[in-house]
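Students often ask what a holo structure prediction actually looks like on paper. The answer is less mysterious than it sounds. You provide the chain, you provide the ligand, and the output is a string of discrete structure tokens encoding the 3D arrangement of the protein together with pantoate.
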Amino acid sequence: MLIVHSPDALSADSDAHRVAGRRVALVPTMGALHAGHLALVDEARRHAEVVIVSIFVNPLQFNRSNDFDAYPRPLDADIDMCRAHGVEVVYAPTAADMYPAGFQTHVQPGPLADVLEGEHRPGHFRGVTTVVAKLFGAARPHVAVFGEKDFQQLAIVRRMVADLDMGIEVVGMSTVREPDGLAISSRNRRLTPEQRAAAVCVPASLAAVREHLAGGERDAQRLIAAGRAVVDAEPLARYEHLELIDPDTLAPVAAIDRPARAVTAVWFGEVRLIDNCPLVP
Ligand code: PAF
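The corresponding structure tokens follow.
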């Protein structure tokens, strides 16, 4: 397995694969790899002969410095995991490799980035699109795989690729969950055992929305209330938002009369967890 740190070294390796006729896939990550990331790697493998995993905790997308500082960075374990999983290339740039002195160009996403997560995390998606554009530029992949857990991020990346003619196939991968339903996330590691037990209220609130929908309720506000009640009943949880949205425009819907998405964010102490699920009337 090749481990590279500079964008030039990554591009040179990727170009050689492309010239040799091999398809290249990129799985962008911030490290602290878990089963969810490995599922992305498996999906990438279905689309390409060469799988690159990038590992970079991107300072531009954190709007709270304590969240950035606390983000886990077990690089050696991540590299071992990639090796054991048959990854061809790990790209692990430092902040200076990614943003050298004089760096000043950013990718500004459109209105898709102003709602939901964007409202609660100002500048977050500008940081995401900037780093993803740079990762695409360095890795030159044919295909890139992203998790649906970050549903809005996936929509914004797809939009960026289309708008900027990047010519990369963007593949979304359904969320991998713990046996109790909690979406697997690097942030779960920061929960205390009590908070981890309480966090099951997040998928449970989405399940409540789906159950009420299956029971015939179509009204968005009543479905949201049903989901929110589950979070409000958990003393260690602090509800932030639960919204029912159009999966393409991300605009709120008033009723579920066509496929939609439920998206939520809930706090446990200093840790903010997000989750989402499809809703089919
Ligand atoms: O989803 C993530 O882990 C990050 O937002 C990404 C896409 C790797 C960009 O830093």
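DSSP finds eleven helices and nine strands in the chain.
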